[in-house]
Amino acid sequence: GSLNRKPETGNLMEEYLRPGEFIDSDAPEVVSLAENAAKGLKEKLQTGVRLYYAVRDGIQYDPYRIDLSREGLKASSIIRKGFGYCVAKAAVLAAACRACGIPSRVGFADVRNHLSTERLRKLMKTDIFIYHGYTEMFLEGKWVKATPAFNLSLCDRFRVNPLEFDGKKDSLFHEYNRDGDRHLEYVRDHGVFADLPYETIVAMFRKHYPGYFKAENSEAGSFEKEADREEEAGGLRG
Predict the structure, then answer these.
(1) 153-179, pLDDT tens digit by residue?
(2) What is the per-residue pLDDT across 197-219, written as a single tens digit (0 to 9) for each?
(3) What spatial distance separates the first Cα and last Cα of the chain, rounded to whole Å?
(4) CA–CA separation, 20 vs 227, rounded Å?
(5) Rg (CA), the chain
(6) Confidence (pTM)
């Protein structure tokens, strides 16, 4: 597994601090988000934690309006739009970290039985989410994983405790929701990258979710609204 790698030092760290095409940490939108979130903080640990919450709750998770163009997956574009799916939000968090001098990178894993609604499952035709994105930041001498995908309001609708992050321990998905039902299982780890492996992500999406790309894109906020409706009907499966 790739979970406990030895920390890189020296030049290798440079690529986790430099702006990338997608993790465009020098873009004004990224710099502005990072500066606002980390205002008044001196320590990297507290800064990383503050950035995590700014991205988790400040950018809405939306699995319907996924723009897989190169421009659409840049951290700066996602901040401008104010919404994105897990990979996009992981890129934003990594970019904000780099803007604050925290080495960061993005990691990917396939996960089963994610926060989903009936309509999303029909579109995807599977309960495996491939290339689910998370962020790793280098804090206090080690890499820590943070998953900023699901904003607080969404977690409430799905009866899942929101993921907290303290900068010291990995913050990956809860395996169980508030009712004790299993809702997430890691199936495969794809490792970590200095920037989004764009061609791979797009190819995997088109291969695994052909139905998704034929569907019409949704109006804003429809994923959270669906979660509300299904919960009222008693049919929401986290």
Answers:
(1) 888 887 778 889 999 999 987 666 677
(2) 999 999 998 888 887 766 555 56
(3) 27
(4) 35
(5) 17
(6) 0.87
